[in-house]
Amino acid sequence: MACLAGAVAGFSHPVQAQEASPPAATAAASGPSLREVTVTGNPLGATDLIVPVSTLQGAELAQQARGTLGETLNGTPGVSSTYFGPNASRPIIRGLDGDRIRVLNNGGATLDASALSFDHAVPLEPITVDRIEVLRGPGALQYGGSAVGGVVNVIDNRIPREALNGVTGKVDLGGATGNGERSSAAMVEGGNERYALHVDGFDRRTDDVKVPLSLACERAGSPAQASRICNSASRAQGGALGGSVFFDRGYLGASVATYQTTYGTVAEDNVSIGMRSNRYALEGEWRQPVALLENLKFQFSHSDYRHTEYESGVAGTRFSNQGNDLRLEARHQPWSGVQGVVGFQAESGRFAAVGDEAFAPYSRSSSQALFVHEELPTAWGKLSAGARTEQVTVRSLGNADVDRFQVGERRFNPHSLALGALWNVAPAWQLTSNLAYTERAPKDYELFANGPHLATAAWETGNSALGKERSTSLELGAQWKSGPHQAALNAYQTRFANYIGLLPSGDVLSAEGQRNPSDASVSTYPEYRYVGIRARFTGLEGRATVRLQGPGGLRPVSHWGALDLQLRGDLVRAINADTQEALPRIAPARLGASLAWSLGPWSLRGGFDHAAAQSRVPSDSRATAAYTLWNAMGSYKTTAQWGGQRTQLLWYARLDNLTNQLAYSATSILTTTAFPKAPLPGRSLKVGLQLAF
């Protein structure tokens, strides 16, 4: 794991150029100062990364956290969200979503059903985590072919990795006007040089989300017409217990965590989902186990995920996913200057769907992988190389209650390779380049799906003859930093030789599976098939910070505090290279700007995020209009003595969509399949208090 500069307040900087906001109570007028954090992007402890990594933590995470992981990260350059309403949203990185994005918990796999369907939530609660990291581009290779788009690593301290001295804790309380949010979370840790214990819990409740137009609603007990997203209320609760034992050369820890939620699916007024996910984890490190190794790390987790879909309170389709994840990683001693790690990863999962809306069969999936990551420091920068080979087995077991599913097994042997270079051109300049070839094995539903999927309003048909998804990626980056001023730009292109897409076949099927029924009174679903096509993704990501006032700034006056102008933007174009038609659910060009001011314990930030119109859509998708969302945020930090205990208090407020702008997300399937039911949230004020002792 790497120790390097912390995240900038805007959460949009590459790691090597990031700055972290200091505690406001001690921050000088000079503005942010550097501090060290641990980042997933490099397993070798390097202070400069070749691949772009962004980090959100501390006060910024507390202020920017939303109810879903996707919306918490949305707006970061290169990152958007699937936005299936306010309760289910996965991150999209550089136009890629689903199983091309790996969502990790402390570096280990999370098993759920969120990649299977847009209406399935990720069982992670942003208000309980310490840090969220986004690793983009070829550097994600060490996590497998399913990480071709990138990695989102959600990090907590449920397994303590460092010895504690006494008792510490944190309490987070919040509320919002736009969705009636009432949230609370608490964490307590205690220990000594040999033992550490962690306990946390959370509870979050929301009402239907306010929006800038009146929408119809057929849910029982709700108004027939209201300026709210019908069926968007939710409740989530959970917690964890963990502990570690420390030895002279390492530690061994374990944790058990639970996450439960009930939420409306938005697309259907009377359908809700009840979810429960339990995760059991074991983790450890052994430093200098033998002469040739600096350390040996391992992680193991078992996940038990289940959710039930209810219609008007009656239980319907039930989904479950149970599985294990094992990761071993050994860092070797430098050989002729070359530093590196070798590792082994194994995953297994058992998926089942029972009910009328089961569009995928029972299945078993397993994979085993070997990987290596090596770096060579040079006088001018560094070189890196990585490789991974996997064995993947996907088996369909059919479904005793549904006879339309194919039974069978496919085996794949994906290989991936990445090369990178970093060049310190001048004291203030760095150039980076990354080249990667990645192969991904098809998922169970891509191979064997066959049924109506209400979240996509389509009949989805898998293709058991699909081959490996193959892609080649090239990325070039430039970073500049001079005192408080900094800027970065990354350009990339990913070409897929066999991109597995879900495309219309032109046929329609009835709920019973009859193809193109002659009876016009029979309700039907358009058929979409998983097919391999050539595809191309091309994009730019950029950000810049200019110190307008304060030490090192354009106006070096410090007694009025530090004032920074923060700029951010991204652009991605994705096409079906066989037909030259645009691929669906691609974010439009986006541009944002903020003014950030800090003085002593106070900080204020305000600005806008503009999304251009998205007219580059397939013929079966809806174009979206341009919109601009204005926002503001403020915080105040102080300390207090309670019962002899020194407590840090962070008061914060965030105003979203200040002008109550009506907007629809180009990356949400609901914009096409359920328009106009799910616009982006309207004006909302969130206030919160975080106590740390």
TrEMBL record:
Its main location: membrane. The keyword Lipid metabolism does not apply. This is TonB-dependent receptor. PANTHER family: TONB-DEPENDENT OUTER MEMBRANE RECEPTOR, TONB-DEPENDENT RECEPTOR NMB0964-RELATED. Residues 244-658 form the TonB-dependent receptor-like beta-barrel domain. Signal peptide: none annotated. Pfam families: Plug, TonB_dep_Rec_b-barrel. Belongs to the TonB-dependent receptor family. Residues 49-151 form the TonB-dependent receptor plug domain. It comes from Curvibacter microcysteis.
